[in-house]
Amino acid sequence: MHLRADLHIHSPFALAVSKHMLPEQLLASSAIKGIQVIGTGDGLHPTWRSLWREHLVNPEGICVVPTAEVEGLHRIHHLILMEDFDQCGALHDLLKPYSSNIDRNGRPQVKLDGEEIAAHVHSVGGMIGPAHAFTPWTSLFATYDHIRDCYGDEPIDLLELGLSADSSYGAGISELRQVPFLSNSDAHSPQTNKFGREFNLLDVNDLTPRAVLSAIREQRILMNAGFFPEEGKYNRTACIECLHQYTLEEAIAHHWRCPVDGARIKKGVADRARELTDGPSSHRPPYLHLIPLSEIIQRVLGTASPSAKKVQRLYNEFISRFGDEITVLIDTPEDEISIINPAVGAAVQALRAGKVELHPGGGGSYGSFSFR
Ligand SMILES: [Zn+2]
Ligand SMILES: [Zn+2]
Questions:
Q1: Protein residues with C-beta less than 5 angstroms from the ion ligand 1
Q2: Per-domain residue ranges for the chain?
Q3: Of 122, 164, 167, 249, which is most buried by a Cβ count within 10 Å?
């Protein structure tokens, strides 16, 4: 069966996460968004696991996969997928001697390098790879040029692209040729313009975490979907204070200091991926670029926020008529969308036709879009 999976989110036990990020709300958001497989996020946190326990079997029929993110040495973030909570508990116990906050912080810091963390993950039967691999602060490629430099002899099982990249960014990096790419939301809120904003379409044999992990391991990823990379916060090289964008050559000439205000210039994901590209592009599953429906409606109605009442009322009308958001974005015929609101119908059609103008983000500020 073909299932949409979002395998990286966070709990209220991690930094800067909405207190509404609770299992009941996440399951409701999954059904509204059209996500059938959800990663728990923060699966090493004992209380978060106990909150999930009674929802592993749920009326929505959503498959709950234990997942976690840890911050290893050099502040590199690793994404971990597991088959059950026993594996989470075993990994927690293995990492605890190296972490001072594993029982408090949903995304714990662990004083181990990638190779050591990966060895522990593999010893309990889990899968691991770099999270948001190209971002300039807390990622593998922020610190290293090669997977081996971080993970040594331990193989990686996946690579998460991050919001500022799509599969084309990693396709020409030869050492990633056999590594499955994942696209996940990394959501800190259950709102449907955050949760499920990126997902993977997987060919899964049954509705169990083990089958989901097998699908990734065996490269049965049919499609990645998510942001246009330009919408991400770190797509372009830019000053972290004034957000002025620079070419790679300009940034080097300025020694990574902004000539306007002296603040730091951060290398964008697009430039970083281009630097690492060393060969022809390998074949990758198609990448579908999407914009959350509530942000499309916001743009059409001209409101300040996608959570405005007017936006939510119209959004709910679409969900009750067509079932879920991703169906509306991908499958529902334009004329049926237009019966509810012609301008939204035209905007969704523009998105499908790629008639979207992008204003790239950088320096920590999201990009934006307009319809042509
Ligand atoms: Zn992270
Ligand atoms: Zn500046």
A1: 77, 131
A2: 2-229, 293-354
A3: 164
